[in-house]
Amino acid sequence: MKPRENDSESGFTLIEVIITIVIVAVVAAMMTSYFGTSITQSSIPIFRLNAVASLNEILEKISAQYGQYSRWKPNTTYAAGTIIVPTTLNRNGFKYITGGGTSCSSPSPCPEPTWPAAGTVPDGSLTWTQNGAAPTLAPLVDQAWQSGKIYSANSIVVNGSNQYVTTGGGTSGGSTPIWASATTIGSTVTPIDGTVTWRWSSSTVPTVILQTLIGAEGRDITQTLPNDTASVSYHVIQNRFIKFNTSVSPATEVDLTGSTIDQDYGKYLKVTIGLPTTVPNRTDETLTTLFVLW
């Protein structure tokens, strides 16, 4: 009987393993070179999209603080409790509330009401009642009282936590007036400041002074905006007032509608924000908006 032969051992030799590794390495290098960074950076577009969406949401919330009140319009039906501010040419530092009705419709064009510093004013079938200080873009530093300054009608100044509005304009005196707070909005402050008469408009400066609300340039900000519940986080790249028309006199400037406005109300606020510097996978997306005093 013929004896059974032993089966020979099967497997890869060392040379075969080395050759396989070399081939795999060459193919991997070719694929990396071919596809470039499309694989390693494939998630970046998603990060950028999320960044833009987040910044858009933040600017929308900031804008909501600025444009929360509509301007007065003729022949318009207003629901009870509606709050408006006068138009650009007639703003006076106050906002007004109504019990409901329709604003004037005749003659056409219908004249805007003469807005009182205190009390009420009829308008078509409704009545407007003064409802406190209107929002303003002016930073606090621009609102500080100055001696010997020519103030236009309805100029605003801030002293401490109180805000005051002129009635007819004039030139301030040589010394700081006695800034008495009042219990009735629109009350006259005594004594008279030079040829200027000031009326008290608010015991707290409106939180919608945007430059202060948004935060200082070069800082990460986390805060809960007024009339909101969720906090927002962003990095302030630019937050400053700019001026387009430098040819007008120092006391006034021209807004985008061509109307001459009082410089003390503020100018144009340019805001650029990005993601906080501490955000993981942070991208360099930014958003810029220009707030114009209306």
Could you provide a short overview of the structure?
With about 290 residues, this protein is of the alpha+beta class.
Q: How far apart are the first and last residues' alpha carbons, in Å? A: 112 Å
Stretches with pLDDT under 50, minimum 5 residues: none
Structure summary, number of beta strands = 18
By DSSP (H or I, 4+ residues per run), the number of helices equals 4
| Share of β-strand residues | 25-35%
Helix-strand sequence = HHEEEEEEEHEEEEEHEEEEEE
Radius of gyration: 32 Å
Strand order of the largest sheet: 1-3-4-7-6
Assign a percent range to the helix content. Answer: 10-25%
Principal-axes shape call: elongated
For this entry, what is the oligomeric state of its chains? single chain
